[in-house]
Amino acid sequence: MIATPMRFTRNSEIYGEDEAAEYLYQVVSGAVRTYKILEDGRRQIGAFYLPGDIFGFEAEESHISSAEAICETHLLMVKRTAVIFRASHERELARQLWDAMALELRRFQAHSMLLISSAEDRVIAFLLDISRRTTKSAAIDLPMSRQDVADYLGLTIETVSRTFTQLEQNGAIALPTTRRVELRKDTLSNRFAQNFG
Amino acid sequence: MIATPMRFTRNSEIYGEDEAAEYLYQVVSGAVRTYKILEDGRRQIGAFYLPGDIFGFEAEESHISSAEAICETHLLMVKRTAVIFRASHERELARQLWDAMALELRRFQAHSMLLISSAEDRVIAFLLDISRRTTKSAAIDLPMSRQDVADYLGLTIETVSRTFTQLEQNGAIALPTTRRVELRKDTLSNRFAQNFG
DNA sequence: CGTCCAGTTGACCATGTTCAATACTGGTGG
DNA sequence: CCACCAGTATTGAACATGGTCAACTGGACG
């Protein structure tokens, strides 16, 4: 299957809401956010995609979100129709597609669970999720700004900032720089009442 | 494809979280809720399914939510593996499956948008959604309790109840009985700041 | 050294939660 | 037919969490 490599710069648009959904994408390096702008101007980030993640199939004919590169990002693109066509012959590919969409559903469902928790639980769940998806080590480098985190978690930037500070004071995390977070997982898990699959 | 009809009584379990995901289901009559119980005992309802809706494919191998009949409910069940197998031969079926999952994703995404709005907007969006999915007339009969609505919207039952009362006092809805709601759509839309697809 | 932008902090405020009391509704049995 | 009961819904008052608005900090870069 022909995959086209593409390069996007910080904050550049990958696709827009309501654009025809022509491609599926896989992140090679960098990070991507998908989002919608509400009428009142707020932005809701639906998901972050990190190296290895596949995105773009939140769509029938046209995309329901916009997608932007958070930082310098390399992607692979394949034609959506080509994938679906090939999947109609190859059981294995069909199953992979199915699983990928199921994973996507899982993520959105987990996100819904997040959004009904306290600010602290949201931030902790976010950090653990990013940590699990990027590195097995205890430190993570966030590619996204506090504003991105806030729009993802349905909080304000101030509340996110305060929560980071609080977690640091509790010894649950360390913040060598604003974008680098060292997790003390045992402490974090203790503070973490929720059941996020 | 062999579809088995099944009957479920009020509050009976259709499948449990972590059960093997053997079937896909279509609602013939009645109503279904899918939900997860959080560690702290709260229940998050992920979705309601109404006549015509297909559910059960929020799954790779096992379900990620439990499903219950809200009231007396008739379903059709088909083996998941049978559907996927047939989809690997039939392009049209594959496309239908794809679209159905995309719709499911859309719903979860819309739900995330809901959960970051005010209580009033959540309730209005909920009512408009149910209305759109059931009847073109201005009156709807809610199969679910206030507690169900609260757990779906991430609010308390008290807030839901207060919001219903408020909307009635504003003339945006009428409540002949607690489960029957007459929508004044123009008034509702005015009060409704959000951009829910 | 000054500017700019992202992030942090503080004080006050609004929205929704909590806890508790009260009302309604539908079904059952006298 | 009515009285009673249990489950469901509504209302009220005090409270807590996160939002808002505004001031301040700190680091990167010219």
UniProtKB/TrEMBL annotation, chains A, B:
Q: Which InterPro entries match?
A: cNMP-bd_dom (IPR000595), cNMP-bd_dom_sf (IPR018490), Env_Response_Regulators (IPR050397), HTH_CRP (IPR012318), RmlC-like_jellyroll (IPR014710), WH-like_DNA-bd_sf (IPR036388), WH_DNA-bd_sf (IPR036390)
GO CC annotations, alphabetized: cytosol
Molecular function terms from GO: DNA binding; DNA-binding transcription factor activity
Q: Name one Pfam family in it.
A: cNMP_binding
Keyword Methyltransferase (UniProt) = no
**Is the keyword Iron-sulfur in the record?**
no
Q: Output the Gene3D superfamilies linked to this UniProt entry.
A: Jelly Rolls (2.60.120.10), Winged helix-like DNA-binding domain superfamily/Winged helix DNA-binding domain (1.10.10.10)
Domain HTH crp-type as annotated: residue spans: 117-197
Q: Which UniProt keywords apply?
A: DNA-binding, Transcription, Transcription regulation
For this protein, the record's SUPFAM superfamilies field holds: cAMP-binding domain-like, Winged helix' DNA-binding domain
Q: What is this protein called?
A: Cyclic nucleotide-binding domain-containing protein
What organism is the protein native to?
Bradyrhizobium uaiense
